[in-house]
Write a structure and sequence with these properties.
Layout: H1 2-10, H2 12-24, H3 32-36, H4 48-61, E1 67-76, E2 94-102, H5 114-131
Length: 133
């Protein structure tokens, strides 16, 4: 499990390199196909290193400005993030952040019964925002 976690953190270029090297030696890809459910030499992984570089470049060039409106953060209580701020730091970028906690994991947020709860809350929240712009 530690090796898999380390590999996942290493990024897509390393994933593909490890899988190809293992295959050349006649071994399995080390579980990459199983974990990501794709062939690392095809499809979505083919351009992953280039996409990663472009994303890093875009992040370096992007300059944030503070949004003067409202935002809603839907937070999954069962899978808390590693950020210590209750609003995950969004208040640095948004004037007004409302946090809605859902007793779900990130993976189950949009599945019933959580999806219905989120839908009801979103409707109520948008009605409130529309009534008080």
């Amino acid at each position: 499990a530690r090796r898999a976690a380390k590999l996942i953190r290493s990024g897509p270029r390393r994933w593909a390199k490890v899988a190809r090297a293992r295959r050349r030696r006649g071994r399995s890809s080390g579980g990459l196909e199983e974990v990501f459910q794709v062939d690392v030499d095809a499809g979505v992984f083919v351009n992953r290193p280039a996409v990663y570089r472009e994303n890093i470049g875009a992040a370096d060039l992007f300059r944030t400005t503070r949004y003067p409106g409202r935002a809603l953060l839907i937070r999954c209580v069962e899978s808390p993030g590693s950020v210590s701020e209750p609003d995950y730091g969004w208040s640095r970028f948004v004037e007004q952040v409302e946090v809605f906690d859902v007793d779900a994991k990130h993976e189950t947020l949009l599945k019933d019964p959580h999806a219905a709860e989120v839908a009801r809350f979103l409707k109520d929240w948008t009605d409130r925002v529309d009534a008080d712009p």
